[in-house]
Design a protein that fits this description.
The protein is mostly helical. It has 5 helices and 2 strands, in the order ααββααα. The longest helix is centred in the first third of the chain and has 30 residues, at 18-47. It is globular, with a radius of gyration of 26 Å. The N and C termini lie far apart (110 Å).
Length: 202
């Protein structure tokens, strides 16, 4: 009986053309960013508290001492918007947003810094920037989903990204006092009017 190893041809190694390597690297980076984002979301879902057993009273109402029904007040946030969150929930959401900003938004849309397009590497310390980037990320999640249809990404660019960039990178925007040149990094949060300044004076 002949040795099958002598008759089987050697398998040629698979080679990728050099011109395709950049496309593969870009696709791999995007996939890795999505995997990281999914990991953060799964961690967040896994850390959510177990729902409490149902209250015997009807949902949406409680009973006052005199026996009348009162509307139930939910102690949790009623919005997915990051500014409606606090404490650990805010920190978890900010970490997930940071992954999206650092691994997808900035590599693709982070244009060169200039006096007319400032940026701040410490963007997470600017409340307006956090709010705008988070809103942009929420819209991205919705409009890049398969259920959004083929025009979803185009809608995201036109209705959300373009508008957000105009405000975020404006010379008088949230980064107005921050970096205007990559060679001169700067970070300063501009002061906002204090609530007591709006009081009526005698």
């Amino acid at each position: 009986m002949s040795d099958p190893s002598k008759t089987t041809p050697a398998i040629e190694p698979f080679r990728v053309p050099d011109g395709d390597l950049d496309d593969l690297a870009s696709t791999l980076a995007k996939t890795m960013a999505e995997v990281r984002q999914h990991g953060v979301i799964l961690d967040r879902l896994g850390s959510e508290p177990t729902p409490v057993a149902a209250d015997p009273q009807p949902t949406g109402s409680t009973t006052s001492p005199d026996g009348e029904a009162e509307p139930e007040q939910d102690s949790g946030p009623t919005s997915v918007f990051i500014l409606a969150l606090g404490g650990e929930a805010y920190a978890v959401e900010l970490a997930a947003l940071s992954d999206w900003v650092n691994y997808l938004f900035l590599p693709v849309y982070g244009r060169e810094i200039s006096t007319i397009r400032p940026w701040c590497t410490q963007w997470h310390e600017h409340p307006e920037a956090v709010a705008r980037l988070h809103a942009l990320w929420l819209a991205w999640q919705q409009l890049t989903d398969a259920e959004a249809g083929l025009s979803g990404p185009s809608t995201w660019h036109r209705d959300h990204l373009d508008q957000a960039l105009v405000h975020l990178r404006a010379p008088d925007g949230p980064f107005a006092a921050c970096t205007t040149s990559p060679t001169r990094p700067n970070h300063r949060v501009l002061a906002t009017p204090a609530p007591e300044q709006f009081g009526v004076t005698a």
